[in-house]
Amino acid sequence: MKLAQRLTLKQLRALVAVADSASFTQAARLLHLTQPAISMQIRDMEDVVGQVLVDGRREIHLTAAGEILLRAAREALDGLERAEVELKARMGVAAGTLDVVAITTAEYFVPHLLAEFGRRHPDIVFRLTVDNRERVHALLQENRVDLAIMGQPPRGIALRRIPFAPHRLSFVARPDHRLAAKRNIPVAALSDEHLLLREQGSGTRDNLERFLRANGVKPLAADQLGSNETLKQAAMAGMGIAFLSHHTFAMEAEYGRLQRLDIQDTPVIREWNVVARADRPLTPALEALLEFLQTEGAAMMRAMER
Ligand code: PGA
User: Fold this and answer.
1) 150 lines ligand 1 (CB under 6 A)
2) Ligand 1: which of 101, 105, 168 to mutate, most ligand atoms within 8 Å of CB?
3) N or C: at which end does the chain have fewer Cβ atoms within 10 angstroms?
4) How far is CA 210 from CA 39, 153, 157, in A?
5) How many Cα atoms sit within 13 Å of 250 on the Cβ side?
6) Helix, strand, coil shares, percent, the chain, to 5
């Protein structure tokens, strides 16, 4: 057979594309080729191997022989991709894919930070997910992300943690709320109010509870609503006062739909952290992003809050 001498990378890419899309037409589109060209690549490979690789009678799927070759094809192509990243790193270029997870509240600013970083590092591709605390902890625990952006880092995992910007949180309500026009409101005034809460386990909820406890305040009533978006809609609908991270309501404040209440000792100031597992290899791409957030994160976030 002498596969290494007789197969081409083009054929290997065709096989992977057919396997991934389970369709010759889709594979052709993926590789910017015609469908007959893909069929020909597969047929030529079958001639070399001497066995059927793709069974297309009913649905397109790989035969056992096809699966063996597919594994080798993926290894060869992945190896070349890794080599490319290493070669670029030698030239000082940060490249490759970064897996980033942002805690729900961070979704209001993380895309802006990544967009700016991406303009400076066009060879870096992102896979960004937004998830709740529990899932972010699990992704770090299972070592499935390069980094996480969150308020309070989890305990019990050895982490590299870089605080990169202050995290401001305040009480907000509709502009016609009776506290909206008042200045320097004592925290105790919240005892007569109806508060809107995030779900248990949310960092925002935790910060609110700590603030109320520290000030010995128990609100008149509290509704649990589950997400920043729902909290904002409920506050705009006049259901009560929400406690929110500043980035989450910047737009509503700008359009006059929500107003920050001037309550004493607010904004509550915590910090935004970027965290990565201590045992995660520091690739040039990861290092470049950490450095970017550390040096420019705070100024960019401040500009977005206005
Ligand atoms: P959350 O996140 O309220 O969306 O959970 C904020 C934080 O991590 O502090």
Assistant:
1) yes
2) 105
3) C
4) 64, 17, 24
5) 16
6) 50, 20, 30
